[in-house]
Amino acid sequence: MDFIIRKDQEYRLAEFKRRKKITIADFTTYIVSIEDLIISKLNWMRDSDSELQKNDVKSLLLSAMITNTSMIGSQNSISPQHLSNCAMNDTSADVNSTYRRLLANLTGEGRLRLASESFESAKIIVRASFSDIHDELVLRKEMFLRFYGADMDDIFVRNFFEFLIEREIKNKN
């Protein structure tokens, strides 16, 4: 997560007005709109010819298409598998090395606890991104796709969701 100080430029003031309010668990904050994030990354890419920014833009555009973010405005049929080569990573090599060293110094129990707590936090964040979905089964499907969709083929995903629906119907009876 990056924190950027707003500049006193006309575009940046408009960008600030377009920010999105989000709530994760009991924490409320604002984030930049996906459109403005893409524009910023394109500007950084132009100024630095950064491969990192280029990959970030590609990932953001594909993510917006999969999640039908308002920027796209229509349903798109793009498979989560297309995202597998588009991971965003703007962590410096020094920070990454320090992080890996810290992880290596944890006990097995400590690593397991950290992984479990990280996954729980990720679920809270992902769940918050689906605030417009109120049907629990649909929410579970969307969360599954967000976490595992890129790792599963279409047949497995279809069979898995059919199983979930059958189990839900069985549990209701």
Describe this structure in words.
It is a single chain. It contains seven helices and two strands. By secondary structure, it is mainly alpha-helical. It folds into two domains: 1-90, no CATH class; 130-173, no CATH class. Strands 1-2 form a two-stranded antiparallel ribbon. α2 (34-48) runs antiparallel to α3. The N and C termini lie far apart (45 Å).
How would the global form be characterised? globular
The total strand number stands at: 2
Q: Could you spell the SSE succession in H and E letters?
A: HEEHHHHHH
Number of helices: 7
Identify the strand order in the major beta sheet.
Answer: 1-2
The residue fraction in helices comes out at: 55-70%
State the separation between the terminal residues, measured CA to CA. Answer: 45 Å
Decide which structural class fits the backbone.
Answer: mainly alpha
Beta-strand share of residues:
5-15%
What is the radius of gyration computed over CA atoms, rounded to a whole number of angstroms?
19 Å
Uncertain runs are 71-86
Largest sheet: 2 strands, antiparallel
Number of domains: 2
> What do the pLDDT scores average to?
76
